[in-house]
Amino acid sequence: MTTTEFVLLARNRFERLFDALVDSARCERTMILVLAGYVATWSLYAAIAKSSQDIHPDMAEMVAWSREIGLGTPKHPPLAAWLVGAWFSVFPRQDWAYYLFAMIPPTAALWITWRISARYLPHDKRVVGIALLTLVPFYNFHALKFNANTVLTPFWAATTWWFLRSFETRRAGWAVLTGVGAAAAMLGKYWSVILLAGLGLAALTDPRRDAYFSSSAPYLTLAIGTILLTPHVDWLIAHHFVTFAYATEAHPAAALTAAWSALSFIGTSLCYVAAAIVLSLFAAQPSVTAIKDTLWPTELDRRILVIAFAAPFLLAACIALVLRIGIDSLWAISAMTLLPVVSLSSPLVTISRPAAVRLLALAIVFPLVMIAISPVVAIIVHRAGVTNDASHYRLIAQAVERAWHANTDKPLRIVGGYSSDVNGIAFYFGNPPSTFDIFSPAQTPWVDDELIRREGMAMVCPEQMNLCVPIMNGFAAYYHAAEAKHVAVARRYFGTDDTPVRYEIVIIPP
Amino acid sequence: MGSAIGRTLIKLTAGLAVVMASFWTTTKIVHYWSTPRDLNVNSIHVTEATYGENCQSLVSSLGHANLVKPGNATAVASLTCNDTDVICPVIVDLIRLGDPASGCGKDFTVSWRCGADQTVHQVYLPAEASGKIAWVSCQAQ
To answer: N or C: where does chain B have the smaller number of CB atoms within 10 Å of the terminal CB?
Structure first.
C-alpha cells in the first residue's frame, strides 16, 4: 500500500466515523464507543509511560484514606476516597487498574458535555466540541493523576447540565438532580463553592430569574443539596473543622502573592485551553462579529452559558484576593465543561465539514501517537528521576515487609513515615497496613497510641531527608523499637538502575 | 420597586428556611443513628504556639517589619497534633511558619491541654529554634 492509499483509507475511515457521529440515529451509540476507546487508549498510555515509576503519592493517599475514613478525611471531603474504595473493592490493587479508574471521571465529563451540547449545537459542532476538549490536558495527562481536583470534573459537569435543565424547565426531577450534583461536587472539594456561586450568579443575572425563583425548583435543589451535605457538615463540626484548617493552612499567601496567583490562575487556565481555542479559530475563521457574539451573545439561552462558564474563574480570582490564599491553575481542571458549547454555539461561527473531519482525526490520532511514544516517555522519566521517591515505593514495601518478618510473625498492621512515602508504600503491600504520618500524627487519626502498642509499627525514612530520621528515632525511643536496619534501593528499568537511595527502617514489635 | 425588593426578600427568606429546616432535620436523623464521638482523655489539644516571642519587642535596625504575634504557630501545631493521643513532633519549620522577625534568633513555645483536663502543658525551645522539634505528648504526664 502506498502512502497516498494509506492516507485516503484513513481519511475514509475518519469520514465514516464523522458521518456516524452526526447521524441522529447512530450518534449516541457511536459516541459511547468512541469514549470507551478514549478511556482504553489513555489508560494504556499511562500504564506504559508510567511503568518506570510507582503511582503518584496523592493517588496512594486516596487509597489509604479509602480504607480508614467515614464522612471526612483529614484534608478533603470524602467523595474521592469513597469512589477509590468502591473501585478497589472490585478491581485489583494494581497501577493499571488505578490509571483506568483515573480516566473515568474526565471521560464521563466529556459525555456530559456531549449531552449538554445537544441542546445548543448542531451535530457537526457537537463532534468538533468534544474533539477539541480531548486536546485539553485536563482531560488526559492531568486526569491520570487522580486527586481531589480531578474527581470534580464529572460532578461539575453534571451539576452544570442539571442546573441548566432545571433553570429552563423548572421541573422537579432536574431540580433534585441539581441538588444531588451540587452536594457531590462539595463532597469532592470545597472549592466547588465557586461553581455553585457561578451558577447562582448566572441565574440571578438572567432576565428569566423571576420565573425560576418563583417555582419550587431552586428550593428543591437547596433542600436536597443540604440534606446530602449535612452528614459531612455534622462530621466537620465534630472534628473542629479540620479540613477547613488544612485548606487555609496549606495555601496561605501575602496580598501580592495572592493577587499574582489570581492572575496566574486565569492566565495559565487560558494556556491549558490554548490549543483547543487556536484550532477552533483556524477551523472556523470567525469574523469579529462572530467573536463578539460568542463572548456576549444576544440570545438569553446562550448568554447564561457564558456567565456560568466565566463566573467560576472570576470568583476564584476574587476569593484569592479577599481571603489571601494562593490558588493553583490546576484547580480549573473541572471548569471546562461549557468551553466547547460557549465557543461554538454562535450561529455566526461555522465549521466546514473537511475542517471538522480533520479536527476529529487529530483528536483520534493524538492519543495513538502518545501510546506509540509512551515507552520512550517511561525511559526518559526513569533517567530523569521522579520526586517524592515515587520510583521506589514497591521496593521499599518489600524491604519493610522483610524487616518486619525478621522481627515478628504477626501481620504488619501499621506503617509509618513521611506522608507521601508512607502512602505510596502502603499501596504495594499484599495486605495493606494503616498509614501513620510521623511528621503530623493528626493527619492519620486512625492510628492511636493503644494500636501502636498492641500491633507494633514499621517505620521508614530516606536517610538524606531532613528531620525524618530524628523524628523516627523519637518514636523508636518512646516505643522501644528494635535496632534500625539500613537498605539501599534502586529501580531497574530497561537494564539501567535509577539513582540508589538509602532508607532506614525501624520496627516497633507488637 | 418596593414590591420587587419585598418579593426578593421573601424568596431569600424562603431559601434560608429551606436550608435550615433541611439541615436541622437531617442532623437529628444523623444523631439518632450514630454513636457519639468518644473523646480520648489523652488526646492533645494545642492551645497556643508561638515562634519568636522573645523577639516581639525588637525594633529591627535593617528596616524589616516585626511580625511576631502570640499564637503565630498555633494553626500549624494544631494541624499537626490536635486530637491525636500519640506523641507528636511539632517541627519549627521556617517554610511553614515564615520568618516573623528577620535578624533575630527566635525561640518557640507550644502549649496544650489533654482531653477534658484543663491543665496546660508547655514545651519551650530556646533561640534559634528553627529546624528543631518540640515533642508534644499527653502520655504518662
So the answer is: N
